[in-house]
Design a protein that fits this description.
With 242 residues, the protein is α/β, with parallel strands linked by helices. It has two domains: 161 residues, Rossmann fold (3-Layer(aba) Sandwich), CATH 3.40.50; 55 residues. The protein has nine helices and six strands. A six-stranded mixed beta sheet has the order 2-3-1-4-5-6, with helices on both faces. α3 links the parallel β4 and β5. It starts with 5 loop residues before the first strand and ends in a 7-residue tail after the last helix. Bound molecules: guanosine-5'-triphosphate and magnesium ion. Guanosine-5'-triphosphate binds next to α1 and α4. InterPro entries: FeoB_Cyto (IPR041069), FeoB_GTPase (IPR050860), G_FEOB_dom (IPR030389), GTP-bd (IPR006073), P-loop_NTPase (IPR027417), Small_GTP-bd (IPR005225). It comes from Anoxybacillus pushchinoensis. GO terms for molecular function: ferrous iron transmembrane transporter activity; GTP binding.
Length: 242
């Protein structure tokens, strides 16, 4: 029997890493893909079932960072922070891993529920690139898989990993970059303030870092989301002294 709950999976990654191809492989849908960056501009949604569970999958726009530099980055950032998907799959290009890992590190600062999915493994093999998945997984603190979305390679293992993660059977310990004593001291001061204001609603360390960076776009988004949560709570009969 299929469960009622619909689990939500987000696909994040740099442009042109095969997110839409993976989305199509999982949903059977034909999301248009093209061999140029910036193809997916607003997020696309589809669904699939696996092991009696229904999943909604959200194909986020490809971005090089999640630091509010563009509308695409804000769409992807806001989805991860405010919509809180059950799993975020970071899709990386196996042939440009070093550059792609930058975005993976940013996602690891935003959520614990992450699977790193290294795509285009067929291309990497042709170029003689070998990837040490288990070492990478140990360092990043989350599952790391290699796939070829275009050829369907590794999709079964990905589905199994998603299933285990939503069942709470995978404990992650995402790598949090250290920013040196000066910044770490400021982060340590800000975290209790952020927690006092928002509770556990948002990842406090990440919010503190964004505040230190003077990210006004995030501040505006936090205010909007916070006020609408307060409105929802008061509408549901909770009182609020804010
Ligand atoms: N060889 C190979 N090519 C792939 C694979 N996955 C995707 N591609 C190709 O890579 C190109 C980009 O794929 P998309 O799925 O559009 O990439 P995307 O990440 O959705 O791109 P944006 O929406 O621009 O961010 C397409 O030409 C795909 O056919 C793969 O596993 N192997
Ligand atoms: Mg796309």
């Amino acid at each position: 029997m299929t469960e009622d709950k619909e689990w939500r999976i987000a696909l994040a990654g740099n442009p042109n890493t095969g997110k839409s191809t993976l989305f199509n492989a999982l949903t059977g849908l034909r999301q248009h893909t093209g061999n140029w960056p910036g193809k997916t501009v607003v997020h696309a949604e589809g669904s699939f079932t696996y092991n009696d569970k229904t999943y909604k999958i959200i194909d986020l726009p490809g971005t090089y960072s999640l630091l509010s530099n563009s509308a695409d980055e804000e769409v992807a950032r806001d989805f991860i922070i405010f919509e809180k998907p059950d799993v975020t799959i970071v899709v990386l290009d196996a042939t440009a891993l070093e550059r792609n890992l930058n975005l993976a590190l940013q996602v690891l600062e935003m959520t614990d529920q992450v699977i790193v999915c290294i795509n285009l493994i067929d291309e990497a093999r042709k170029k003689g690139i070998e990837i040490n998945k288990s070492l990478l997984s140990k360092k990043l603190g989350v599952p790391v898989l290699t796939i070829s979305a275009r050829n369907g390679e590794g999709i079964d293992e990905l589905l199994k990993t998603i299933d285990l993660m939503v069942n709470g059977k995978i404990k992650t310990n995402p790598l949090k970059l250290q920013y040196g004593p000066d910044i770490e001291e400021k982060i340590a001061k800000l975290i209790p303030l952020v927690t006092k204001l928002f509770g556990t609603e948002y990842p406090a360390r990440w919010v503190a870092l964004r505040l230190l960076d003077g990210d006004h776009s995030l501040l505006d988004a936090l205010k909007r989301d916070y006020h609408s949560s307060v409105r929802r709570m008061t509408a549901n009969g909770y009182s609020c002294s804010c």
